[in-house]
Amino acid sequence: MDDGHPMTAAGRYRLLGPDSVPADDEWIGRLRTPGPVRDQAVQHLHALMLRAARHRVSRMPDGAALGAVRRDEIAHAAADEATLSALGRLDSFEGRSRFTTWAYKFGILCAGVEMRRALWRDRDVRWHDVSEPLEPAATSPESFVEGRDLAAAVRDGLTQALTDHQRRVVVALLVDGVPIDVVADRLGSNRNAIYKTLHDARRRLRTHLEEQGFTREATTTEVTR
Predict the structure, then answer these.
(1) Domain range holding 52?
(2) Nearest alpha-carbon partner for 52 in 84, 85, 76
(3) What is the mean pLDDT of residues 31-37?
(4) pTM to 2 decimals?
(5) Over 60: is that where the pLDDT of 107 sits?
(6) Both ends of the chain: CA-CA distance in Å?
């Protein structure tokens, strides 16, 4: 029975009506079918990404400072990027969740990245070496001394055990709270490379602290917090 919608060349999928979206088990097939069916599926995917991006943008701290127009521009840019990212990773979809749930995460991630970049665009990142240590929180004189000694050892480790690049990354991320996307952009790098730098730096710091006589439990708490 013909429902009035044209068949695809392959005869498997029909173009959907204006108020319809692909069934969950049809997304992959439609996105891989050349021609109008794929074009329509991409439009539906982009609409999903835009909803995800707008949701994320509306909940970003300090986002109101950018203004409604700029936030909407960011949401559209994020949706564009998320759509391309999802299309390039269709082979990684394993069906463990709904396709829309899997795809939605791309919109959320890309919107977060774009918002953080926008919020930091006119802010300087101070690539200082080591900040002044904070007074450790303690409930007794003994724990205060232990905390002070550990903080001093961490400060020494930042100076002695890390490379200049590792130290800049650690201080920017863990001390100054600069978003990792911003750190990557300012250093001409990418998220994966910065994550690896942070991982290597933490390992070096932990080794340094253990060599100074601090327990592994104490070093793990201090280095990862």
Answers:
(1) 24-120
(2) 76
(3) 92
(4) 0.65
(5) yes
(6) 63
Q: Which pLDDT score, from 0 to 100, does residue 214 have? A: 72
Same domain assignment for residues 53 and 114:
yes
Please tell me the total count of domains within the chain. Answer: 2
Tell me the mean pLDDT in the region 123-140: 58
CATH, residue 95: 1.10.1740
Place of tokens 């001409």: 188
Token pair listed for 152:
């001093």
Q: Say what the pLDDT of residue 5 is.
A: 46
Torsion angle (degrees, nearest 10) of CA 89, 182, 116, 173: 110
Find all residues with CB under 8 Å of 89, minimum gap 6, and list them.
none
Which are the contacts of 107, defined by CB distance < 8 A and separation ≥ 6?
Answer: 48, 49, 50, 51, 52, 53, 55, 56, 78, 79, 82
| 34 lies in the same domain as 116 | yes
- Please, what is the average pLDDT of the chain? 82
